[in-house]
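ok new one. same drill as before - structure tokens go in, u give me an amino acid for every spot. 428 of them this time. try not to just spam alanines like last time pls lmao
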């Protein structure tokens, strides 16, 4: 691949100004859940102009909504189409999916933003706006990698499948729909914001709801009742004990830098109706992390067993067990072997572009990579520009230099992974 790095760098430099303008246009699209049609149609037109086979469709049907991996707060996606563009290879090479989502979380309190959340404002080399880092910057890096190779006259042997999906923030229904539509590959790259660390493993997660029961009484004679609030404190303690047990088992060195590799977080607590009454009901809602390689049903069983152990600590729970419900979002864990050929190529490309050795760790959050790895038999590796610390936060931004660095790395990786065809005077 001698000489390709310089050619790719020079071409990306030519494309930089136009690419920044495109990213600004994407960030200015308020593509929150249910409002993704505009940006998706724009992306479809661009893929078509690049000569790719374009598939734009609205997800629907029982095959999707009844699928065991389907999770979404809605079942109608009329204004949220998926887009896939296929850059067909000449044959004989390995195929690659570049998967990214365009749905973004709401901007939140406007007063906490220094710039308009959908401005695409650029200050000191950083582009600001909701979705800039999670993950439109990564999507642009993928697109630019393809565009760069095309501009250099490259024909690849293997197919490159660019996926612009919806619903990632709600659990992955968009990527699930692409799998059910038949899109699979020999491997996948997902440019979520990892600060260019390479994540071959991603924890999964799922939401749960606990209902803790008490017995109501007047606050003046509270001793005649049983406070669900007080009982819920025992439940929280038991959840903390379970979290420690689960994390003590994890010895994978990729998790060494994470204080709690697979956390269990209580994010919502609601209880009581009146200050002068003993609370008879408390609701707790949270997120349970699932380790790569762990079956989600096994994690559920551990939670159920921990809650049943409460009866050993307090007889109240024997007669009034905590009710456990799994609901809402869910992300499937995924794992790719550290010696996978794509891992080796990625690290080689990273070092070639940056002059540094790549950092390999495990992801502290879930992505659509688990679905691709587990359901589509498409090993998915997560690596991309941007940092997690500003995703979902006010003043979200991405450093533009990292976007173009990622595009270089992806372009070099595609050359070796997919193979260069002996056509058009271009060869390896």
């Amino acid at each position: 691949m001698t000489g390709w790095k310089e050619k790719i760098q020079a071409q990306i430099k030519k494309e930089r100004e136009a690419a920044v303008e495109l990213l600004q246009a994407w960030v200015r699209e308020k593509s929150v859940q249910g409002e993704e049609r505009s940006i998706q149609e724009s992306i479809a037109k661009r893929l078509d102009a690049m000569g790719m086979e374009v598939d734009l469709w609205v997800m629907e049907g029982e095959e999707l909504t009844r699928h065991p991996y389907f999770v979404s707060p809605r079942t109608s996606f009329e204004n949220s189409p998926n887009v896939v563009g296929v850059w067909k290879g000449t044959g004989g090479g390995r195929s690659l999916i570049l998967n990214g989502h365009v749905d973004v979380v709401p901007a939140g309190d406007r007063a906490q933003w220094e710039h308009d959340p959908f401005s695409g404002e650029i200050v000191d080399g950083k582009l600001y706006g909701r979705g800039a880092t999670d993950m439109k910057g990564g999507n642009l890096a993928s697109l630019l990698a393809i565009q760069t190779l095309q501009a250099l006259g490259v024909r690849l042997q293997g197919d490159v499948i660019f996926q612009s999906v919806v619903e990632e923030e709600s659990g992955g229904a968009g990527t699930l729909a692409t799998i059910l539509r038949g899109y699979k590959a020999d491997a996948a790259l997902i440019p979520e914001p990892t600060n260019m660390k390479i994540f071959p493993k991603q924890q999964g997660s799922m939401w749960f709801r606990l209902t803790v029961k008490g017995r109501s009484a007047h606050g003046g004679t509270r001793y005649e009742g049983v406070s669900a609030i007080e009982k819920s404190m025992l439940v929280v303690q038991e959840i903390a004990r379970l979290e420690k047990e689960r994390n003590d088992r994890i010895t994978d060195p990729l998790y060494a830098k994470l204080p709690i590799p697979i956390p269990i977080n209580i994010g919502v607590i609601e209880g009581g109706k009146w200050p002068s009454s003993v609370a008879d009901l408390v609701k707790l809602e949270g997120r349970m992390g699932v380790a790569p390689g762990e079956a989600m049903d096994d994690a559920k069983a551990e939670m159920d067993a921990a809650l049943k152990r409460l009866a050993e600590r307090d007889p109240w729970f024997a007669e009034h067990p905590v009710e456990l419900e799994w609901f809402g979002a869910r992300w499937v864990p995924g794992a790719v072997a550290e010696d996978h050929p794509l891992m080796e190529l990625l690290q080689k490309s990273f070092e070639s572009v940056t002059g540094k050795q790549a950092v390999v760790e495990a992801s502290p959050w879930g992505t659509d990579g688990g679905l691709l790895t587990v359901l589509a038999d498409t090993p998915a590796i997560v690596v991309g520009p941007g940092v997690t610390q500003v995703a979902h936060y006010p003043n979200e931004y991405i450093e533009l230099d990292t976007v173009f660095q990622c595009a270089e790395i992806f372009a070099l990786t595609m050359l070796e992974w997919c193979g260069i065809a002996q056509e058009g005077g271009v060869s390896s």
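The chain has two domains: 4-202+333-418, 205-331. and btw Residues 4-202+333-418 form a domain with the Aminopeptidase fold (CATH 3.40.630.10).
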